[in-house]
Amino acid sequence: MRRHPKLEDWRGEAFVTTLYMLDDDAYDEKYWFEADILATHAKCMRYNEDIRLNKPGAKKAYEDFKAARYRYMKLVQEHVQKVYDHGEALKRKREEEINDRFGKLGYSKSTIRRGIKCSLDRGLINYLTQCISRLKLIDADWQRIRFAHEPNIALWYCRELQYSHGVVIDARVKLVESVYDDYKRTLRPIEWLRLPPVGAVCMVPSVRDLVFKDFDTTLDRARCEETLRILPDVISAYLTSVKVLSLRALGETVQLQDAVANWPAGADDRLALATSVFSYYDGGHAISYNGLLARLSELGADILEPRSWLVEESISTRLLDARYHCESEYLPRLDSRGRSITIGLATALGLDPDTARPEDFDALDRRFFCRSEACLRKFIAMSWRDAVFHKDPSSETYCISMLDEASSAAVRANDGTHYAETKAWSCNHCCAHLNDWQSQAHVIEHVLRSHAVADPMNHVDYIRALAPVYDYRQPLRGENVSPVDVTYQDIAIELPEDDAKDEFVGWEAVDWNPII
């Protein structure tokens, strides 16, 4: 009002206002509409001019105008209040209906309230805004709301019970894990890398009821084994879910009908390519669909731990069923910069980027190194996988040096110990190393002795059971490279600009209740 001195004698309630709300129950301050103030100011100027010219009745006309304006705005504000109260009533009715529907799924009111108030990323919010404008909760809207919120609600349900029945729950989870391990023993070890973690399995409704209900009764192994007969179906749904997510990240359109997907032509071939590079919320990366599955099998392994982060928990839960993806930005997505680097490396190696698979890169097994003065991995030999993710997110051009075959062979002869000594390996012929990973040398010795394999091969006779973590910010252990003593080729790859979709909302998830 200070900007309009002619209106200083007017009270604020004479003008159209809006309300800025601090929360659902309190108002912070009023904001006036500039256009309304300007229109009123123009009329006041005319009345004041008449008063200045001493026109008969000018002052009374001005006072009558003000009085009429106050009466009019009083009616307007009463109407606005009625509309607001009506909207609040509809909002409460909608919230009650949503809470009732979640209640019928077996969740308590406190769990529903806390789960719905969990922070959401932009993808989930955009997904939900397609249904929040309707006053009546139709079934299609309810499905969206359910699939967006239920993972968080289910996790809050489990977390609340964990505090009061933690000892019993931990024992039951151990029993579920034991039965799950028995099922794993029926599979080839390489298939373990494609399974959901036990914590995610415990989020399946029937298994969740087994673990988080009836604490006065003892859970015996026979009952647990009977319930976990659904494991093949759970794993099938999980694999379908991750495959749908991966293909959509690559730009494919995948239609789901009753949990059955209509796969596009050549889907499996495209997912197997080395150029199918994925990244996820914590900065991790994976190459190809199988690499992504291996990394996801480790994410959320401890989702029932009270110290674990709810976002990581909900990722594992959402991946159990493709309907729960809900466009969340925390789920894995295409890494466009990693894809560009892989294409550049394939070209330098003489491979066709459109057909090259990780196994083709592995067969060449060239070594790379970085010469940047600011690099923590300067002059350290890297595998092609390390080289793909050895990039500064802010750089526009990726520079790396590739050793020729002779120099790579010399380096490979010495740097194998750095890679193989980690206890992350398993035999691929038996389950001897289930939950007991060993060094590569130990596993190879086991394969030679127990399975009489003359020349054990990686990915065939033994596997790396733990997915390696790639992070350009961390030092790399490996063989030092002297540019003077080796033959190498410099490679420069232009990287695409960071697309908004390639950046995770990450730690700035929006705390907003989208069911209004």
Task: Please tell me about this protein's structure.
By secondary structure, the chain is mainly alpha-helical. It folds into 3 domains: 5-104, no CATH class; 109-334, no CATH class; 352-422 and 466-502, no CATH class. 48% of the residues lie in helices and 10% in strands. The protein has helices at 34-52, 58-104, 109-116, 122-128, 139-184, 189-192, 198-201, 205-212, 221-227, 231-249, 267-271, 288-296, 310-318, 336-349, 358-364, 384-388, 405-420, 440-451, and strands at residues 17-23, 26-32, 255-257, 260-262, 277-279, 285-287, 333-334, 368-369, 397-403, 425-427, 462-464, 488-494. Strands 6-5-7 form a 3-stranded antiparallel sheet, sandwiched between helices. A 3-stranded antiparallel sheet has the order 8-9-12. It has a two-stranded antiparallel sheet with strand order 1-2. Helix 3 (109-116) packs across helix 5. It starts with 16 loop residues before the first strand and ends in a 22-residue tail after the last strand. Mean pLDDT is 81; it is low at 19-28 and 500-516.
Strand content: 5-15%
Tell me, briefly, the overall form. Answer: flat
Helix proportion range: 40-55%
Low-confidence stretches: 19-28, 500-516
Q: Over the alpha carbons, how many angstroms does the gyration radius reach?
A: 31 Å
Write down the overall mean pLDDT: 81
Number of helices: 18
Number of structural units classed as domains: 3
The helix/strand class is: mainly alpha
CA distance, first residue to last residue = 33 Å
**Order of helix and strand elements from N to C terminus:** EEHHHHHHHHHHEEHEEHHEHHEHEHEHEE
Main sheet properties: 3 strands, antiparallel
Count the beta strands: 12
